[in-house]
Amino acid sequence: MDIREIIDQLERLEGPSRRLDGEIAQVVGWKKKVETFKDPKSGEARERLLWLVPSNNDEGIIPRYTLNIHDAYSLAQELAPTLEDVAGSEGRALPL
To answer: Residue 11 — pLDDT band, cuts 50, 70, 90?
Structure first.
């Protein structure tokens, strides 16, 4: 997902979204890692998603960017290369 799509989703968001938090996290440098483990109860192989911190690749918990929608939208605006790039060819203005 690119920054334009994130901003579009933030404009329509009605509440916190961990899915969108993940998309934002990837834009700011977090990386996903899928790890296989053995379920202790069933013995079955399962997978879990881990997030790696941008600065050191340690496992971490991504921030709750969308808990405060205004802050998430502000972050997306800061990450946008320019407002013109974000507006794209549609020529629409983005609210600040």
So the answer is: confident
Residue 60 identity: G
Q: What is the pTM of this model?
A: 0.69
What angle (nearest 5°) sits at the alpha carbon of residue 18, between those of residues 72 and 30?
75
The beta strands (E) that lie in 39-77 are given as 45-52, 59-60
The pLDDT score that the predictor gives to residue 88 is: 52
Residue with tokens 């916190």: 16
Tokens 């549609």 label which residue? Answer: 90
CA distance 81 to 84: 8
> What pLDDT is attached to residue 83?
47
Q: Is 24 helix (H, G, I), strand (E, B) or coil?
A: helix
Among 27, 10, 26, residue whose Cα is nearest residue 67:
10
